[in-house]
Each structure stands twice: as C-alpha cells, then as structure tokens.
Amino acid sequence: MHARVLVVLAMRNLRRHLRRTLLTASAMIIGGGLLMFSLTFGDGSHEQWIDSGVRLGTGHVTVERPEFRVRRRIDDRLPAEVRRAVEEAFASPEIAPYVVATSSKLSINGLASSAAGARPAQIMAVDPVAESAFGMLDERVAEGRYLEPDDRLAAYVGAEMVESLELRLGSRLVVQAQDAEGEIAGQLLRVVGTFRSGVPEVDRALIHIPLTTAGEWLGSKQDVTNVGVLLDGSAATGRVADRLERVLADPVARGEARVMRWREADPALAAAVAIDDFGNYLIQAFLFTIIAFGIVNTVLMSVMHRHREFGVLQALGLTPGQTGAVVLIEGFTLTAVSGFLGVGLGLLGTWYFLGDGLDLTAMMENMDEMTFSGVAVDPVIVPLFTARRIVQVLVFILFVGAMASIYPALRASRIDVTEAMKFDR
After folding, report:
1. Other C-beta atoms within 10 Å of 81: how many?
2. Is 367's pLDDT higher than 50?
3. Cβ atoms within 10 A of the Cβ of 275, count?
4. 256: helix, coil or strand?
5. What is the pLDDT of residues 69-113, one digit of tens each?
C-alpha cells in the first residue's frame, strides 16, 4: 500500500507539470533514438570490416603452428592428424551450425620473377572451390578468371605485381621458395587472372596457386600451414575457438598447433574496431551527460517548488526516505518511459528507412579511400540489430536516469518540515 501511494504521488507530479515533463522526455527520446542509430550502424560497419578482413586473411578462427606467423616457412606445416581433427571439429554438431565455409591453405614467402625483374611474393596455395566460398578475391577479378579445380600450373596474381613485372594474361612467371627438403625450388606458372582487392599491399604481393601444384613443386603433398573457418558472425568466434582448443588440447600442449581468433591474427583490425568503438562511446557519453543534466534540472525544479507539499506529507506521516523515494520514482519513470520510446523509435526508424544499408559511395572518391587498417571497406553500411546491444542501451539509459535522480531525491529527503510549512515556496 505504501509503495502504491508513493507511485501515485510521483505520477501525479509528472502529470501536473506536463510541459516540463514532455520537454525532458523529448530530449531522452531523441537521445535514445540517436544512440540506437549510431550503435547499430557502428556494429554493422565493424561486422563488415571484420568480414572483409577474415575473408582476405585466414578466417574468424584459424589453426596453425605457433611459429607460423613469425617465419611463414614451409617447415611450419600442420601435422596431418591435426588437420583431420580440425576438419572433424568443424563438422561436429557444436560448431557446424555457425560455419559458413572452411579453407585449408599453404602460405609461404617467396620470390616472383619475370624478364622485367623480380619481386617478393606471398604465395598462397589453395583449393579453388573451397577458397571461392571462403574468400573474396574470386569476386575481385580485374582480368581473366579465378583458379579452377583442373588448373595445374596456373597463377592468380595481384594487379600491381602484374604491372611491376610487366606481365599480362597468358604470360609466364617463375616463383621460387624453399621446399620441404630445405632446398630452393622454382616453378614456372602461367597467369590466368589478375585481381584488385582494394588493398595495395595485397595487390602488389599476393599470388594464388592450386594446392596440388604447390604439393608437387615443394614436395609438401597435401600439407597446409593453416586451416581457417568463416563463421556466420564474429559473435560466434569465442565459442568456436574454445571448442577447438578443447579438441586440440594435446597438440596445443605439444606446441604443434595454436588456435587463433581473428583479433590475434589481425591485431591492426582489432585495434581499429576498438578505437572506433571508443570514439562512438565517448560521443554518446557526452550526449547523455547533457541529457542527465536535463533530468536533474527537471526533477530538482520539481523538488524546489514542492517544499510545502513535502512538508505536509511528512507531517502526515511520510518519512524522509519515502519523500526521497517519490522523487526517485519520478526521475526513474521519466527515464524508463522515454528510454523505451527512444530505443523503439530508433530501431523502427533505422530498420524502416535504412534497413537495406546506407550508401556512402559519394563520400569515397577513389579506391584508396575505401581501405581502412588494411581492409577494403564496403561503401554500403548495413545496420546490425542484436538483442545484446538493445539490452545494453536500455540498461545504460536507465542507469543514467537513476544516477540523475539521486541528488534531487536526497534534497527532497532532507527538507526541514518546520521551515517547509511556514511558506509556500
């Protein structure tokens, strides 16, 4: 009964000063809507950055030898039993629902040469079918075509390397690298296609060749240096990596394998996402600090104009704590209702008007502006709606409202009944 009376008193005051209540609620609604708009597009852009990065790299989760990232030598191949265990784990009921594609690669550093000169190269041997489902380079063809299953002495080369070596479709080039016996071995290849990934560093160094060709050339047979998985979203990275670590506990303990999440495999991309998130949070914190002062002003003005009312209520038996609770309920209710409306309207407006994506092509004049932290950025940003993010926003807004209502509630609880009854302030 006491709680009901306190709520009725709080609601009556919000209704009594309706214009002031609506002005403060409007600020909260607009703030909540802008927060949802900003975070959904921020999450969407980050997911696109991550997707582009892992497709160009080794996946959301990759298994490789611990020393592979440092040396990138053919000696850093995965044992055959580790590769089988990883592929079986990807097909298991715990991981399979999250898997979009898998890819096993043999990646080594080498040298590419033609009559025009020689250039350092990152030679990546792939299964053409698996890589077409996993990566994105098959969609970035500049000339010719991507690798096919029947190809043997074929090479799919970055456009900048083709230009620097003065190659064209059908031209021959020689690649050299250390083979499985520790000797320098060369292989003659023919250019069947060129690509432009949008990342200059990739276009000037990367060469894709069939895995069978690399096995014959280097004596590695079907061995690979890493096995990666592309997931349906970066949120599943943790649980998939944890499962793989349990499956590969023995090889990991022996130093034969290492399970890497995309944040470890691409720290530059992880840092870029973290920095962008921090900037977004900073702007939103500034916005809601201003809104919090508005809530404080609204509730505190209500307290200042109700000294006599609070004095009468305390004289009739309301305790100082209950007086403060009335004010706290006012501020929290105002925040809760406004927050839910703001988040709801923000979600609805973002989904209805921009659910198919926001095209920023006009802001990007050339391909150089479409790269960020070594990742080709898609100019169309699609918002990402997740229950976790919505709950975070609601909790944050309620926390701001509760904190902003504490000081006015303390002022109300400390009113001197005798002084309050003297004058109607």
Report:
1. 12
2. no
3. 11
4. coil
5. 888 889 999 988 999 999 999 999 999 999 999 999 999 999 999
Helix (H) or strand (E) holding 22: helix 18-56
Question: At CB < 8 A and 24+ separation, what contacts does 44-49 make?
Answer: 44/381, 44/382, 44/383, 44/384, 45/276, 45/381, 46/273, 46/276, 46/277, 47/233, 47/234, 47/384, 48/377, 48/378, 48/381, 48/382, 49/269, 49/272, 49/273, 49/372, 49/373, 49/375, 49/377
Q: How far is CA 306 from CA 236, 303, 378, in A?
A: 53, 5, 56
Q: How many C-beta atoms surround the C-beta of residue 334 within 10 A?
A: 22
Task: Identify the CA nearest to 185 among candidates 211, 164, 214, 212.
Answer: 214
State whether residue 167 is helix, strand or coil.
coil
Residue 112 one-letter amino acid: A
The predicted-structure confidence for 161-189, as pLDDT tens digits, reads as follows 999 999 999 999 999 999 999 999 999 99
pTM: 0.83
Pick from 384, 380, 350: which is nearest to 364 by CA? 380
* Amino acid, single-letter form, for residue 299: V
- Which tokens belong to 86? 């990883």
Query: Residue 414 and residue 333: Cα distance in Å, rounded?
Result: 22
